[in-house]
From TrEMBL:
Coiled coil: none annotated. Pfam families: Methyltransf_33 (PF10017). Signal peptide: none annotated. This is L-histidine N(Alpha)-methyltransferase. Residues 12-309 form the Histidine-specific methyltransferase SAM-dependent domain. The keyword Methyltransferase applies. Keywords: Methyltransferase, Transferase. It comes from the Bacteria.
Amino acid sequence: MAEGGARDEALRRAVAEGLGRRPPRLDPKLLYDERGSRLFEAICAQPEYYIPELEMGLLEEFAAPLAELVGPGSTLVELGSGASRKVRLLLEALRPSAYLGIDISCRFLEASVARLAADYPWLRCEAACRDYSAPFAVEPPGEGRRVAFFPGSSIGNFEPGAARALLQRLRALAGADGGLLIGVDLPKDAATLHRAYNDAAGYTAAFNRNLLRRLRDELGAGVDPDGFAHLAYYNPAAGRVEMHLLSRREQAIELDGRRFRLSAGESIHTESSYKYTLGAFRRLAREAGWRPRRVWTDAREWFSVHYLEADTSRA
Ligand code: AVI
């Protein structure tokens, strides 16, 4: 089977499995086709979605002490496409000798890594098209200390057990003297979180409902995206913002001859965004073999950037 066909099959199976669950649930990875990635970029430019600006501010403010901790000649391994202003700021501050970008979206990744290579001729740049939410193999270029960079609080989109497993994989990738620079969103008042995931311009709603368009256009599913409303709210007991697609009426999604029924008011859970206190995140990181070294937060304590080092006492 061609690669695209195999990918479609895997997508079909994942969607059928998720819609068949009670309550129905789809993997948040499915939100990121090309249109979804563009909508996410638009979310990042909305005033209510505070994460990108706060994280960029912290990296700017603390670039010098971070560079001192990391030291010269490192290899920076970014989980993500290399398209952000954040990684450019880090490259200029840390002056690593090599950069590796890892992302599932191959075309996007290759284009952004090619731009980095053109703009930083002194840097050895490579791209590895991988799904880092599952075990993956890569051989980072360069000989220096490996520092993984995982911005944007994307760790919050993993269930805690899967987040721990990913942190363990990054620990193995970074090696004995490696580091991890990771952005983690902090718990805060429900109204601020509600606004951040329900922006007035409607980009988050479009991002969420794009998943249904994807099922319709890519998989030929019988589904009416207008039959669903965007729903996002803070669930304080679970420590996470939940995003759902709320069925406006009784209906069914048809896929490959199967009918997945939804009653009015029933919802499909499409994403969780966990918010970790500083202590809770440090605990999770320690369990995954990391030793917390420094953490920076903004004045309101809305967002945190942790720098962790490999804990060799437990290797
Ligand atoms: C990518 N990730 C960290 C975002 C978040 O905040 O969970 C995705 C997102 N979903 C809705 N808005 C933004």
